[in-house]
Amino acid sequence: MTTPDTQHAWPGATLTRIPFWVYQDENNYRAELRRIFEGPAWNYVCLEVDLERPGDYRTTFVGEMPVIVVRGERGAIHAFENRCAHRGALIALDEGGSAKHFQCVYHAWSYDLRGNLLGIAFEKGIRGLGGMPESFCKAEHGPRRLRTTTLGGLVFASLSDEAPALDDYLGPEIRGRLLRVMRKPVEVLGRFVQVLPNNWKLYVENVKDTYHASLLHAFFGTFRITRLTQGGGVLVSPDGAHHASYTIDRADDRESTAYRDQGIRSEKSSYRLADSSLLDTVDEFADGIKLQILSVFPNLVVQQIYNCLAVRQVLPKGPDAMELHWTYIGFADDDPEMRARRLRQANLVGPAGYVSMEDGCVGGFVRRGAAAAGDEVSVVNMGGEGAESQETRATEASVRGFWKAYRRYMGA
Amino acid sequence: MTVSAGRVADLLPRVAALCAEYARAIDDDRLEEWPDYFASPCLYKITSAENHRLGLPAGLIYADSRGMLTDRVTALREANIYERQGYRHLVGLPAILGETDDGVRADTPFLVVRIMRDGAMGLFATGRYLDVLVEVGDALRFRERVVVCDSSRIDTLLAIPL
């Protein structure tokens, strides 16, 4: 089956074989921006706490489209393309701030907080000469507007009228898992950007890949933060697009020799921490779940590893590059002990994370390994061929779910 | 509290020497010695100028004990997967900012080139060390070393400490 946007073919309808051209092809990448990020998907854009008061704004991207997300005068959240209707320059240059209105620096065209074109410098010309034609209608010119919606303090935007209501988009299970963590007002503890040398899909697959976590990450395996022999499973939304994986500690795992029996590098029995306060954890959600990784198609990850909470935004930057925008969070009502615990456990994640640093380089290993393999395929067969929820994490069901959703968006 | 010119003249070579030795230990891959440059208790944190300006407390690396520094080194040696790489630090001249009962405050600029196993080199980080230094025996040690990177962007991963 040849896709509409490239000369390449998918190897039939199976979700278990992924051709490498899909990570490499420039035309396919352009089509993804149009069909997915600018299509009927909900993109995570910022936190509600970033937009506390009217006029507070953040600049970010929907795919590669620059956008401004801003709290309007009446409290609604607006989003519009960060592109002047005149010559296309960026309207806002900062990461964020507070504004009464926006003005493009190039020719001083100005916009209200909804993205309406308000003013044109020297619109009437000077002394009757020059200026814009009488027929020019400001209301007909403006940056493209996006729909916005919120859930659990997260702000999403869509350029398409066809994106379903967010609750329907997520489905009840994933929505419930999201609100399990995002249950009360959050506080931003820090922001970092990890620039990754790989296609965005390699990172999203890595997030959904419950199979790799305790194999690649010796820190997880050794300290039994997450192991495949522990309780847990993976929930996949019915359309395949979103997932939540979770780990529940089980006493019988503590004596398990399964990893040793498989000769797996990631369990090191001699490895000990000099300061074990890193692993000091409170069951703050009172459900025994030690780790939950949740993804919302196409660009959001909400992570709970012990008491370390973070929101990750995936931004594509060409076929071979992406940015991962980390926002470390706590809750506004955290006590000093919980705050200190979150700061210590943040060592697990981010560009220098005991766990996440490895996810930062493994996508590049795939890009380099498969550089000449555009017409070859990768194998995604653990746990069968389907994309349904499973009560094990020794499966690639949620990775197949990603491809199920991806192919639907791409018309492939 | 400001420091007299005489006290600066006394401190400057000692702070500069400590910063130079610290950088050499990292660049020479003597990471096991890295925790020895800190007093106990201590704070070591890598953050960005933006987080620092906004007062956001999280770090890329955050260690509030010497044990956590040791654990960082052990993880790099025993657990973490990353391509072989090294740093070359260029450390500027410290500015002695003041001295209180808590110690001497200094601000020292740095630049780090990262050298990958295949020989690719690139400017990896620039920034400044915001230090609080105390006497331990007859040596100066870091009570606090906050590494404020000029940029919030990290290429691929940050394994080796700055």
Number of helical stretches of at least 4 residues of chain B: 3
Spans of chain A with pLDDT under 50 lasting ≥5 residues? none
Q: Note poorly predicted spans of chain B.
A: none
Q: Strand pairing plus helix content of chain A: what structural class?
A: alpha+beta
Residues in β-strands, percent of chain B: 35-45%
The major pleated sheet of chain A works out as: 7 strands, antiparallel
Oligomeric state of the chains present here:
heterodimer
Jot down its keywords.
heterodimer; A: 412 residues; alpha+beta; seven-stranded antiparallel β-sheet; 11 helices; 19 strands; B: 162 residues; 44% strand
Structural account:
- The complex is a heterodimer of chains A (412) and B (162).
- Chain A is an alpha+beta fold and 412 residues long.
- Chain A contains eleven helices and 19 strands.
- Chain A has helices at 21-24, 26-37, 166-170, 172-181, 200-208, 213-216, 218-222, 258-261, 336-345, 356-369, 397-410; strands at residues 17-19, 43-47, 56-62, 65-71, 77-81, 96-98, 102-103, 110-111, 117-119, 145-151, 154-158, 186-196, 231-236, 243-248, 289-296, 300-305, 308-316, 322-331, 377-379.
- In chain A, the strands form four sheets. In chain A, strands 2-11-10-5-4-3-6 form a seven-stranded antiparallel beta sheet, with no helix packed on it.
- In chain A, helix 5 (200-208) packs across helix 10 (356-369).
- Chain A is globular.
- The termini of chain A are close together.
- The mean pLDDT of chain A is 93.
- Chain B has 162 residues and is α+β, with helices and mostly antiparallel strands.
- In chain B, 27% of the residues lie in helices and 44% in strands.
- Chain B has three helices and eight strands; from the N terminus they run αβαβαββββββ.
- Chain B has helices spanning 5-27, 49-54, 66-79, and strands spanning 38-48, 61-63, 85-91, 95-100, 103-116, 121-136, 139-149, 153-155.
- In chain B, strands 1, 2, 3, 4, 5, 6 and 7 form a seven-stranded mixed beta sheet that branches.
- The radius of gyration of chain B is 16 Å and the shape is globular.
- Chain B starts with a helix and ends in a 7-residue tail after the last strand.
- The mean pLDDT of chain B is 96.
- At the A-B interface, strand 12, helix 7, helix 9 and helix 10 of A face strand 1, strand 2, helix 3 and strand 8 of B.
